[in-house]
Sequence to fold (167 residues):
Amino acid sequence: MPLSQVPADPPYRAYAAILGTFAGVLAGTAALERELSRETGRWTPLELVLLSAATFKAARAISRERVGSVLREPFVETEGDTPDAVEERPVGEGLQRAIGELVTCTRCAGTWAAAGLIATRTLAPRFGRLLTWSLAAGAANDFLQAGFAAVCARADAPRDGSEARRS
Fold:
């Protein structure tokens, strides 16, 4: 967004409300964990890798993929001719705009996704594990598909006019 289009007054109160909600959700999860006597224990390095991959996939789905557009739609305006060439910008003021900024930022959405996955693992361990593993597998699929496409593109690309020399 060009600097001339950036609203002059960021919605600081809305940012504070979002941060307060985030802290409250985490504190509430910790309190419920304690109340339910569910000690999640130490996380293994593998669990951290899986959580990271799952967070990546969830954040991309929320902030970039078509399936996440239903979450973004009330908070953004879209520009572009095709679904693949759509640019989304936060709209409105106050909380609407702040949420629009949140759902269009992969890093911001990733922080919330990580907290949600950890909360789910804490409060519903089996479901949390299933959700985390499913999203992590989806992330691995994304990387494998991108790698395969890159290998195919490289194999199909002519090298230094080698196609011309063969004829």
